[in-house]
Each structure stands twice: as C-alpha cells, then as structure tokens.
Amino acid sequence: MAKHRILFVCLGNICRSPMAEGVFRRVVDEAGLARQFEIDSAGMGDWHAGESPDHRAQAAAQTRGVDISGQAARKIELEDFDDFDLIVAMDGANIADLEDIVPQAARGKIRRFLDYAPHLDHDEVPDPYYGGRQGFDQALDLIEAAAEGLLAELMQDKTKKDA
Ligand code: 4NP
Q: May I ask the CATH class of domain 4-162?
C-alpha cells in the first residue's frame, strides 16, 4: 500500500513546522497508523539549517508528550514537491512563497494546515518566534486540532477509495 507522504512547511523550520511534524507523528502513532505514513518538515529559508528546533518549541511540545528534540531544520527543495503528496503550510505567506517555486504539476499538493480545523476562528498558525512561550502554546492548540482533522480527512478519503 502506498504511504501518505506529508511535508509540513513554515518559514524557519525551527518553531511551527517541527511542532506540526511532532504532533502529527503522535496522532498517527496513537491511531496505530505509523507504517502508513512518511512525515517530515521543512522551512522556506535556510537560516537555521541543521539546527534543532527552538528550545521554546521543544519545551512546549514536551508538555504535550511530544519530543521534537531529534529534528534538524532544513530548507525545502524542489524534489520535495515530487517526494510528498501534501505540502502543508502554516500561514498565507508560506502559501505565497510555495506558489512562487512549486512546479506546475505539483500545484495541487499545497494545503493550508488550518483548513483541516474549520471550526477554529483562525486560518493561520501565527509565527511565535518573536514572542514568548504563550505563543508556542497557542500554536500547539491550533496544530493539535488541525493534525486530528488532517488524519480524519485522509482516513475518510481512504474509506471512499476502498468503498
Ligand atoms: P517558524 O518561525 O517559521 O515557525 O520556524 C521562525 C523561525 C525563525 C525565523 C522566522 C520564523 N527567522 O527569521 O529566523
């Protein structure tokens, strides 16, 4: 069976997309579906390439049982648009930046993460980098809701395909 290949994208790949990767891994693990998924994250820029996630992101994720300490930041590459089925962006600026570089054939792979949590009164995961810890906790609230929604949608699509 083909795996679902999901790439989470933000600006720097040290705050939001690493938390999204970690939370989505946990959601998928808890559903017993880890073997069906390939999950990664990347940034639009390379300022922090090779670095671990921001210590505030690590600490905030840890309080929710998510260990992201082993991740290393990287910049998105053109091959990612081939290698992944969905490119899931944290905010509108990420979407615009992705649309500037996406090969034509992969345009349909770009998604806005919070579209998977339409009940929330947010459509972006705000960048917590220049704020305090509270921004990371708020980002995680949004990320947890959207991660559940993303898995639910993928499983629903599968049920439709199998029917
Ligand atoms: P992220 O946050 O996009 O959620 O990883 C940021 C991290 C670093 C920078 C900007 C945003 N920066 O400009 O270095």
A: alpha beta
